[in-house]
Design brief:
217 residues; TIM Barrel; 8 strands; 17% strand; binds erythose-4-phosphate; pentose shunt; transferase; Aldolase_TIM
Length: 217
């Protein structure tokens, strides 16, 4: 499973990237706002640090305008992945930009029907939003499973990029289902290392070690 980091925070990306844990990055207009930086500048900096695809999102609503914005964003770096919303215009933009050889991430996917259209439109990645479905008392993980089944039925090459991840269980469940990629905030990825029994076991080992009176170095 590939790990993308869902942030435009350079320091947070660097910490995980230095551990070899970053296969790509996703941003969106809200994350750019949070970074307080210009999209071109921060995207260029991320692209220079990370080898994999870095999603930068268009904000226009009409297909022609999305295409123009997408082409512009793609000039920032060779590893920019153009992110378009799952609207009819977004699908049109996806088809054109994908045919031009760009990588496309179709975002804001909330149904299997939408995911089928994204695959047909040549998306490199489809981003189903797990957390936001859970927020409205639907099961976001069911959507990941449905898309996996459908894509496998027909051999669609579009990669399932499980997004809007809020918990460690979201990551594990998406991995069990076979999502190709997860994108999660750095804090959620780092919390995968936590376990109460690890903390308890370490405390016991440290206490016992202190009683030996020994030193390793
Ligand atoms: C994905 O590309 C989005 O940036 C992201 O996962 C949205 O997550 P949120 O629902 O926590 O804002």
């Amino acid at each position: 499973m590939k790990f993308f980091v869902d942030t435009a925070d350079i320091a947070a990306i660097k910490e995980l990237n230095d551990l070899g844990m970053v296969d790509g990055v996703t941003t969106n207009p809200s994350l750019i706002l949070k970074s307080g930086r210009a999209i071109a500048e921060v995207t260029a900096e991320i692209c220079a640090m990370v080898e994999g695809p870095v999603s930068a999102e268009v904000v226009a609503e009409k297909a022609d305008d999305m295409i123009a914005e997408g082409r512009h964003l793609a000039k920032i770096a060779p590893n920019v992945c153009i992110k378009v919303p799952l609207t009819w215009d977004g699908l049109k933009a996806c088809r054109v930009l994908s045919d031009e050889g760009h990588k496309l991430n179709v975002t804001l996917c909330f149904s299997a029907a939408q995911a089928i259209l994204a695959a047909k439109a040549g998306a490199t990645f489809i981003s189903p939003f797990i957390g936001r479905l859970d927020d409205i008392h639907m099961d976001g993980m069911d959507l990941i499973a449905d898309i996996r089944e459908i894509y496998d039925n027909y051999g669609y090459e579009t990669q399932i990029l499980a997004a809007s991840i809020r918990t460690v269980n979201h990551i594990v469940d998406a991995a069990k289902i076979g999502a190709d990629v997860i994108t999660a905030p750095p804090s959620v990825i780092k919390s995968m290392a936590n376990h109460v029994l690890t903390d308890k076991g370490l405390a016991q080992f440290n206490a016992d070690w202190a009683q030996t009176g020994q030193k390793i170095l």
